[in-house]
Amino acid sequence: MTGHHGFAQQEWFEYLEGTLPPAQRAHLSAHLDSCPQCAQLLHQIRAWEQKVEEEARSLVLHVERHPYDLDRMSTEMMCRIRLDSPPALAARGMVFAEAVRLLQSVLDPLCGKGAAASAVRMAAERTGGWLDRRLSSERWPVFVRNLGEGVGAVYGVPAQLLIERVGALVAAEVE
Ligand SMILES: [Zn+2]
Questions:
Q1: CA of 101 to the centre of ligand 1 (A)
Q2: Does 16 reside within a domain?
Q3: How far is the CA of 110 from the centre of ligand 1 (A)?
Q4: What residues make up the domain containing 148?
Q5: How far is the CA of 38 from the centre of ligand 1 (A)?
Q6: Ligand 1 centroid vs 10 CA: distance in angstroms?
Q7: Which pTM was predicted?
Q8: Is there a domain that residue 124 lies in?
Q9: Residues at Cβ < 5 Å from ligand 1 ion
């Protein structure tokens, strides 16, 4: 996809994440100052990320008390998240940064933001391909397994199952 006014979907998420390289960041920043459409899209993506965080938090809280509900609750969560996707992105699959964002949101309430971010980074390093920021969809299941194992080792089997389950649902969406 050519993206929005020349910016790829991946760049928007990396911009919000603060991981976009400085030159690209400056370029996108300058564009945002002069383009209301893109400024609105960024606003929608940020709102969507907050929605994802809320959904993930309530999933984690619920499943901690009712582990047998994991399949149903996570499937319903994915449906709601996709329905609330910004219109400009909804018709498309998830880019890697978007999918990672989702899994990290599930981890945040489990282990805190700092630990969640480093678990994701370690799993990505174990999987390889993090440096070019383009883990392909074939590598996604390996990434999810590595993340599940890493989290499970510290936070236990329920945390691992949660990551594997949500990771499998996301797999259907990753481009
Ligand atoms: Zn624009």
A1: 23
A2: yes
A3: 37
A4: 9-171
A5: 4
A6: 15
A7: 0.80
A8: yes
A9: 5, 35, 38
The pLDDT profile of the chain, 175 residues, written as one tens digit per residue, is 445 788 887 788 888 888 889 999 999 999 999 999 999 989 988 998 889 889 888 998 998 899 899 999 999 998 888 888 887 776 677 777 788 888 888 898 888 888 988 998 899 888 876 544 556 677 888 999 999 999 999 988 888 999 999 999 888 777 6
* Tally of domains within the chain: 1
94 CA → ligand 1 middle, Å: 20
In a domain, 54, yes or no: yes
Backbone angles phi, psi at 151, to 5 degrees: -70, -40
**Quick one: tokens of 133?**
């920021």
Q: Which residue matches tokens 């809320």?
A: 54
